Amino acid sequence: MSDMRIHADATRAAPLVRFGRYLADNPVIPLIAFLLLLIVVLEVMRPGIVLPVRVGRAEVISSFWVGNLIKFAIPLAMLAACQVLTMLTAGIDLSAGVVATCAAYVCATLTPVLANGTGMDASTAMVASVAIALLVGALVGLLNGFGVGVVRVHPLIMTLGTGLIATGCLQVYQRFVISTGTMIPPFLEWLGTGRTFGMPNGLFLFVPFALFVLGLMRFTGFGRLLFALGSNAQAAKLSGVRSWQVLMTLYTLSGMIAALTGLLYLGMIRTPSLSLANPLMLPSVAAAVIGGTSIFGGRGSFAGAIVGALILRVIDTMLTLLQMPEGARIALFGLIILLVTALYVRITGTR
Amino acid sequence: MMRVAQNNAWVLGLLLLLLALLGVTKLIQPGFGATGLESLARAALPFAFATAGMAIVVIAGGIDLSIASIMAVCGVTAAVLMQSMGAVPAVVLTLCLGAVMGAINGGLIVLTRVPDIVVTLAMLFVWEGVALLILSSPGGVVAPGLRALITGSLVPYVPNALLVIAVTISLVWLPVRRARLGLSIYAIGSDDLAAFRSGVNVGLTKVIAYGLAGVLAAMGGLSLIMLTGIGEPVPGPYLLASVAAVVLGGVVLGGGRGGLLGPIIAVFVLRIIRTILTLAAVDPNVTTIVEGVIMVAVVMLGAVVTYRGVRT
């Protein structure tokens, strides 16, 4: 709204203000700086955890530590992608955690069912169950998209509601498959727990995924439509955007991303449960918000969300190292999220 | 008379729905009477307070995701305090604590200028952690007098629990609603810029609205420990339920419209649906699905109705 004016007098503004605007245009830079600062603090707290050379081991940077950090940040960053994409249109996807859990559970339980019950060979059964798990995500997403795009329910309510419905369905479903046992497709396990050159194999999934999301947001018409709808829904509609089609596609995509995250997380944790990925839900919103995505729509970056996820994981490690009681850890986690967002808002002057 | 009915069409509809559902309950279980009503009201108590608190914040144009965590903090605080002091000072202290926590939420939103939803999301973790610090596992005691307060019915067919809700809401909300402050709360919810230019202190009003929600959440926490007799540091499922009931009760997300009566009736509607499904021997897991479907369906219906209303 006031962007024009801001850019017009940017040349005359005070250096600090100009710096703030520069950062507002490139939100990833201060975030990476903050991440590095946190890592330095971590190294000071526990010498040798990041730079083992300091305590006399051969490596300069601990590939184990970096690998672990990345490994646990990947699912968070992927789930944050759901939030970034939906927040671009001033929405939010609070069903993402439940969808991820559902997908993981469905995949783990359907694999043995399909393999034993229908006489499929094991690999077909795995592919089929993965496909069905993704379909579950798409289905919930489609329902979200219908509610938000066609019926115009507030996204917060709609996704909370579908999350509730999905949880109920999962509990009912669980009673039918309780006796079948679970099996985790080996390639998910390989993705989730394996390492190549010290780096987690999850990167094989995540790097193409991140490129896809970044490309989608930056270079495609669909991405521009998301920004347009979030900046000014009325103007976008008057320019001929069929918002319901965009929103349906968006939420379906978001559901599928969440399901994919669930599958990866299943391979990582290796024990399917009815609340597997639910604890990732609120941190994924936090990662997106720390990454500079505005929940009022029209502004956001997935790159920022990835750094946000890394920041959250480093903070997690720090709080664990401090060996505080669990309550203090959770409380500090919340305070740090608040602090980072508040600082971000202050420095860049945006919300 | 007609005007009143038109203005409160949504609340009236909910009330009729509630009565119809009570009728259905009576049909399914002919024995459903005063005791059934009493246990229903008692079980609905924490939900009703959480919803009332959430409703005030939503009317003021915000949302408080930390409400269940505030309830947990207040619950454990009261349970710990009652180990060493009488019920009355413990309750008073807890209510003050609730007000302070709510005001902190509001103050942080005003100070940091971070959106409500993000601040209260962060505070959800903070309060949850505080509750765990106060009491790391369920414990504490609850004064027996307090537990007796919400059981039974002084007036036939009017459960005490219902009276507790009615009295609290009329003590907390009615004076506010009648005063200038109530108008300010509605004003900042409708359009904070317009409210600011009409001379409303937007920041202060917001802090007070969150403080009121904190008091009601504290009541929710207290009623929770009165129900269970023990302080529980892990927040219950009150966040989702209260948002659902607030929306079902005709309060518009985004603020400025609705009241407290609708959401509280909505709480009872949602609880009685649960009772009916239990009586009909439906699997409790299916109950969750049905609740979710009802919530989504009602909100969709409401959205369609308002959308049509705007267009024509």
Overall description:
The complex is a heterodimer of chains A (351) and B (312). Chain A is globular. In chain A, strands 1-2 form a two-stranded antiparallel ribbon. Chain A is built from 15 helices and two strands. Chain A has a single domain, classed as ABC transporter involved in vitamin B12 uptake, BtuC (Orthogonal Bundle). In chain A, strand 1 and strand 2 (199-200) form a beta hairpin. By secondary structure, chain A is mostly helical. Chain A has helices spanning 3-8, 15-25, 28-45, 63-88, 96-117, 122-150, 155-177, 186-193, 202-219, 221-231, 233-238, 243-269, 281-290, 302-321, 326-348, and strands at 195-196, 199-200. In chain A, helix 4 packs across helix 13 (281-290). Chain B has 312 residues and is mainly alpha-helical. Chain B has a domain at 38-239. Chain B is 78% helix and 0% strand. Chain B contains 14 helices and no strands. In chain B, helix 3 (34-59) packs antiparallel against helix 11 (202-228) and helix 8 (160-178) packs across helix 9 (180-190). Chain B is globular. The chains are: A mainly alpha (351), B mainly alpha (312).
Beta-strand content bin of chain A:
under 5%
Coarse morphology of chain A: globular
Uncertain segments of chain B:
none
For the largest interface, the chains and their residue counts are: A-B, 46 and 48 residues
Q: What is the helix fraction of residues of chain A, given as a range? A: over 70%
How many strand units of chain A?
A: 2
How many helices of chain B does DSSP assign? 14
List keywords for this structure.
A: 351 residues, mainly alpha, ABC transporter involved in vitamin B12 uptake, BtuC, two-stranded antiparallel sheet, disordered N terminus, B: mainly alpha
Question: How would you summarize the topology of this molecule?
Answer:
The complex is a heterodimer of chains A (351) and B (312).
Chain A: H1 3-8, H2 15-25, H3 28-45, H4 63-88, H5 96-117, H6 122-150, H7 155-177, H8 186-193, E1 195-196, E2 199-200, H9 202-219, H10 221-231, H11 233-238, H12 243-269, H13 281-290, H14 302-321, H15 326-348
Antiparallel strand pairs in A: 1-2
Helix pairs in contact in A: 3-14, 4-9, 4-10, 4-12, 4-13, 4-14, 5-6, 5-7, 5-12, 6-7, 6-12, 8-9, 8-12, 9-10, 10-12, 13-14, 14-15
Chain B: H1 2-7, H2 9-28, H3 34-59, H4 67-84, H5 87-112, H6 116-134, H7 144-149, H8 160-178, H9 180-190, H10 192-197, H11 202-228, H12 238-248, H13 261-279, H14 284-311
